[in-house]
Design goal:
This protein is of the alpha/beta class. It has a domain at 2-115 and 179-212: P-loop containing nucleotide triphosphate hydrolases (Rossmann fold, 3-Layer(aba) Sandwich), CATH 3.40.50.300. Helix content is 47%, strand content 15%. The chain has nine helices and eight strands. The longest helix has 15 residues, at 165-179. The structure holds BIS(adenosine)-5'-pentaphosphate (AP5).
């Protein structure tokens, strides 16, 4: 089963991907997490991606598509995956359709998490993430049990460099220009499930599970 989580920066894709991956026994494949891991390890991929990420731009398709398709070809993805942050434009969506088609598979559902702009800014402004497993927290809405430490793996929490006001503005612009056309693309394919992303994380998760049933 392949499920895409679509939504603006801060909509809660990462948060819901973790919850959904546990419930559906599927792997979360998050393009942003893969880039951040490469960045931490200072690989060639990480160095290339950094230039785009710190400006809030999309990393070029030829880099991104190859990275995600290679990840999807790993054994733990043999039953499918929860895709978080990919695809991000029509080019990536078509490349994904093609790659899955080659193994007689396809995207099952696309969950579009809809959140107002004011709420997105509030969420991104208070976000902390785990350096080790990338789980997101919020200093007001979902703080960790122990300050500065991840509940899941005990890793150190930090604030993302691209969560500053200027870069968030750019990321939102890029989302509306390049990613939001995917809403129509998947609507036409009859795969889109639109979910109200406001309310607490459990409420949103329940709405997603109900819609997927
Ligand atoms: P990426 O890491 O994918 O970031 P994003 O899409 O901007 O999304 P975010 O991770 O910011 O938000 P989210 O929706 O996952 O929200 P979260 O659950 O964390 O991409 C970063 C960069 O990498 C891009 O700018 C680009 O440069 C590059 N990149 C990545 N993928 C790419 C691709 N495919 N192509 C090209 N370039 C790519 O939640 C946010 C906050 O809200 C958290 O604090 C959380 O605790 C809180 N929260 C979540 N849900 C709720 C709720 N219901 N109520 C209250 N608070 C909540």
């Amino acid at each position: 089963m392949y499920i895409i989580l679509l939504g603006a920066p801060g909509a809660g894709k990462g948060t819901q991907a973790i919850m959904l991956a546990e419930k559906k026994k599927l792997v979360q494949v998050a393009s942003g997490d893969l880039f951040r891991k490469a960045l931490q390890q200072e690989t060639e991929l990480g160095k290339k991606a950094k230039v785009y990420m710190e400006k809030g731009h999309l990393v070029p398709d030829e880099i991104t598509i190859q990275m995600v398709l290679e990840r999807l070809a790993e054994p733990d993805c043999k039953n499918g995956a929860i895709l978080d942050g990919f695809p991000r434009n029509l080019e990536q969506a078509k490349a994904l359709d093609k790659a899955l088609g080659q193994k007689s598979s396809a995207i099952d559902k696309v969950v579009y998490i809809k959140v107002s702009e004011g709420e997105l800014l509030k969420r991104l402004g208070g976000r902390w993430i785990c350096r080790k497993c990338q789980a997101p927290y919020h200093e007001v809405d979902s703080p960790p049990k122990v300050a500065g430490k991840c509940d899941r793996c005990g890793g150190e929490l930090y604030q993302r460099a691209d969560d500053n006001v200027e870069t968030v503005k750019k990321r939102l612009e890029v989302y509306f220009a390049e990613t939001s056309p995917l809403i129509d693309y998947y609507k036409r394919a009859k795969k889109l499930l639109e979910i109200n992303g406001e309310g607490n994380t459990s409420e949103v998760n329940q709405r997603i599970l109900n819609a997927l049933r």
